[in-house]
Amino acid sequence: MILCGHSYGGFVISGVADQIPDQIRALVYLDAFVPEDGECLSDLRSHEQVLEMRQQVQTTGDGWKVAPIPAEVFNVNSHDSAWVNAQCTPQSLACLEEPIRLRGGLARIQDVTHILATGWGGSGGSPIPASHERAKMKGWRTRTIACGHEVMLDLPNELTDLLLEYASS
Predict the structure, then answer these.
(1) Which residues is 2 bridged to in the sheet?
(2) Is 123 a catalytic residue?
(3) Is the pTM of this model over 0.90?
(4) Domains in the chain, ordered, with CATH?
């Protein structure tokens, strides 16, 4: 099985792969976070971004809801931007601050790739390049793709080709 996780999905595939490493052939982190044991999403964002998010939760988020990030921040293409914004819903702050627990199973997976989307900066800059550097330090295969954060919308054919390449190798 090959798992591909996008953005926060890097936490999801890391947790799954850590639990069932013998069932995973490869992992693809698609412009995704690469967490270490005990980290949460807030640990991988800038201090300013975390403070802004927590303030927003208190002022307009009923004490628990994080407002969706607008598609424009992710540099989503103009054709899909309004559609993306219409799909977005608030996220629980607790989800973004719950630490992941990794027990070493993830390290047993040898075929891991991190793909960095280079065409967005986000509010205060994209937090993903730090995860891309972390992937390099782990010895994972790394690639870049020139588009906004929503690779599957901006370059669906190119992404399909990349994923098929990994599936056939």
Answers:
(1) 26
(2) no
(3) yes
(4) 2-168 (3.40.50.1820)
